[in-house]
Amino acid sequence: MRVTSWLFQSFPSRITFFRREGCGLCVQARSVLSDVWDRRPFEYKEVDIVKPESKAWRDLYDFDVPVIHISKAQAPEEDPKLSSKAVKLMHRFTIEQVEAKMDQVEKS
């Protein structure tokens, strides 16, 4: 992702990527997100669920990574207690699926 060229711009969508080190599916998911970014930049946040400060996310997604939450960029930060309401994709997803979820969020 080429963050520097878009550094001072705001984006309509934010993607929060929940992952863990050593996860092959997470590597594939990051590649998909990079391809989406090239077509349609978005605000990006990454959460390593293994870190101690991410325990609540690990409790939710320990066996489900990779997971992405898609929200409006101006929405509050992700909250584990509200994860059931999040617009999300899990495990394997395509560029088209991510963009469709971005469209859904931006139109709501």
How is the biggest beta sheet arranged?
Answer: 4 strands, mixed
Poorly predicted regions are: none
What value does the average pLDDT take?
91
Tally the helices.
3
Sheet with most strands: strand arrangement:
2-1-3-4
Ends apart, CA distance between termini:
26 Å
> Strand-residue fraction?
15-25%
Class inferred from helices and paired strands: alpha+beta
Order of helices and strands: EHEHEEH
Q: What is the CA-atom radius of gyration, in angstroms?
A: 13 Å
Which outline best applies? globular
* Total count of strands: 4
Helix content: 25-40%
Keywords: Electron transport, Transport
InterPro entries: Glutaredoxin-like (IPR008554), Glutaredoxin-like_YDR286C (IPR052565), Thioredoxin-like_sf (IPR036249)
Pfam families: Glrx-like (PF05768)
Organism: Pseudoneurospora amorphoporcata
Q: How would you sum up this structure in a few lines?
A:
The protein has 108 residues and is α+β, with helices and mostly antiparallel strands.
Question: What would you note in describing this structure?
Answer:
The structure is a single chain. It is built from 3 helices and 4 strands, in the order E-H-E-H-E-E-H. With 108 residues, it is α+β, with helices and mostly antiparallel strands. Helix 1 crosses helix 3 (95-107). The model has no long low-confidence stretch (mean pLDDT 91). Keywords: Electron transport, Transport. This is Glutaredoxin-like protein.
